[in-house]
Amino acid sequence: MNPWLVYKPAINLVGLPLRDGALSEEYDVLWDALSARYAEIPYADPDQGYGLHCLNSVEPVYLAALAVNQIGVVPDGMAAKKLPANTYAVFSHHGLSEDLLQTVDRIFSKWLPGSSYQLAGDFYLENYDDRFQPGSAESVVSIYVPVIEQPT
Description:
There is one protein chain. This protein has 152 residues and is an alpha+beta fold. Helix content is 19%, strand content 43%. Strands 1, 2, 3, 4, 5, 6, 7, 8 and 9 form a nine-stranded antiparallel β-sheet that branches. A hairpin with a 6-residue loop joins strand 3 and strand 4 (61-68). The model has no long low-confidence stretch (mean pLDDT 89).
């Protein structure tokens, strides 16, 4: 696993939340629902889909979201989240969506503990761009993990 580092300014997200404990099959249903409603989101960029995994909140949430230039009126049943500017370790997951959690597990159980970085937030992001191909072994999803260098 050889990530690259990238600095991203603050990211505004608006989308549909799913409470933790949900099955991964429910993610597909959530994304389908968001696809049907994306036109309701002011300032949305339909080509910048993000899956936001909140790790340590009181009630962890997965947010199937679109990037927005600014957070306007949030449609009923949706949620908004503003992520601060961060440096991210970016990993590419190649393959089927159902194998994505194995890649995430390797990032957090092997790469992060063995690296010179530590987690800089209580979340990570999946970025779904034009390389994502549902149901295809050729699909690519980028995983963004906010990091800072460990103190020496």
